[in-house]
């Protein structure tokens, strides 16, 4: 009377069991499970296993293939088993394996299953690792940006200092030439303030004309 509902529960059992067997059982690729819903439905036990040479993804894919076959061949049955070359899966209305189940769903008095607890811890660890990684990455990025900015600023200051030194050296050379020419020439050399004073700050009244090299002042 509850065939479709029971099959959906078996599908849930297979999904949880396959996930644990493929990704949470290290190299064993093994999982056992138990699921209790209510007194009207039987407690269902399950087991899934892959050969240990399969990767987690390959094991999961193999389980999915068996689950599809289980829906086809065991429609409405309370138990069944399919044994493949690389993986096998089984479920029954009684416990057919020894020990505690790796996956517990809705069992008596259980507020949370070991799988849920392990998954929660795994998610918390993953979140912490991601947060720490992002923080370290951001810190390194900010540090790199500050270092680049400082290097560029230092390079700019160095260029300014070099330009200032070049200007000073050119000024010194010009002064030396000025003194040499003044001492050996019949012409008098004037600096800029003297020229500005003599031409009344280059006023238009003292402008004589315009030549090829610029304005000419009296």
Automatic annotation (TrEMBL):
CDD domains associated with the record: Gnk2-like (cd23509)
Keyword set includes ATP-binding: no
PROSITE patterns, sorted: GNK2
Domain of life: Eukaryota
Keywords from the UniProt entry: Membrane, Repeat, Signal, Transmembrane, Transmembrane helix
Keyword NAD part of the UniProt annotation: no
Transmembrane segments: 126-148
InterPro entries cross-referenced by the UniProt entry: GNK2, GNK2_sf
All copies of domain Gnk2-homologous, residue ranges: 1-96
Protein name per Swiss-Prot or TrEMBL: Gnk2-homologous domain-containing protein
Organism: Aegilops tauschii subsp. strangulata
